[in-house]
Amino acid sequence: MPKRVLLAVIVLLLSTFFSAGCRIGLGIGVETRVGVIYFLSTRDDVFGQLYLDGEALGYIAPHEYLGKWIFLDFKHQIELHCGYCGTVHSMILNPPLYAGQVVTLDFNHQD
């Protein structure tokens, strides 16, 4: 019976740790949110290889979308290696971001 009680206490402590973020002693708390952000191509001439913070997400076709799990409380940089004009378009996503948010990729090709 004591093993079951100990196991229940451990599970309870771990569940509160993972649901509330991370506590760093002395009452200092660090909380980060994680969620899926969707990147949507809104025009016929916006397509190509898409990168988020230097990591390749994949190829995005015109009027299609890609989703990625990210930390919602930090800045992120998007780069699109455009298949239409051959240049690299970039934009910065500033927090706060929200889970399920759709980021429209509507770049001007006169850069």
Question: Could you describe the 3D structure shown?
Answer:
This protein is of the alpha+beta class and about 110 residues long. The chain folds into 2 domains: about 1-30; about 30-110, Immunoglobulin-like (Sandwich), CATH 2.60.40. It contains 1 helix and 9 strands, in the order H-E-E-E-E-E-E-E-E-E. It has one helix at about 1-20, and strands at about 20-25, 30, 35-40, 50, 55-60, 65-70, 75-80, 90-95, 100-105. The longest helix is centred in the N-terminal third of the chain and has 19 residues, at about 1-20. It is elongated and about 70 Å long.
Mean pLDDT: 81
Can you count the helices? 1
Which structural class do the helices and strands define?
alpha+beta
The ordered H/E elements are HEEEEEEEEE
Per CATH, what is the topology of the largest domain?
Immunoglobulin-like
What is the count of β-strands? 9
- Cα gyration radius (Å): 20 Å
Which residues sit in consecutive blocks of at least 5 with pLDDT less than 50?
A: none
**Overall 3D shape:** elongated
What percentage of amino acids are in beta strands? 35-45%
Helical content (DSSP H or I, runs of 4+): 10-25%
Report the span from N to C terminus: 69 Å
What's the CATH architecture of the largest domain? Sandwich
Largest sheet: 4 strands, antiparallel
CATH class of the largest domain: Mainly Beta
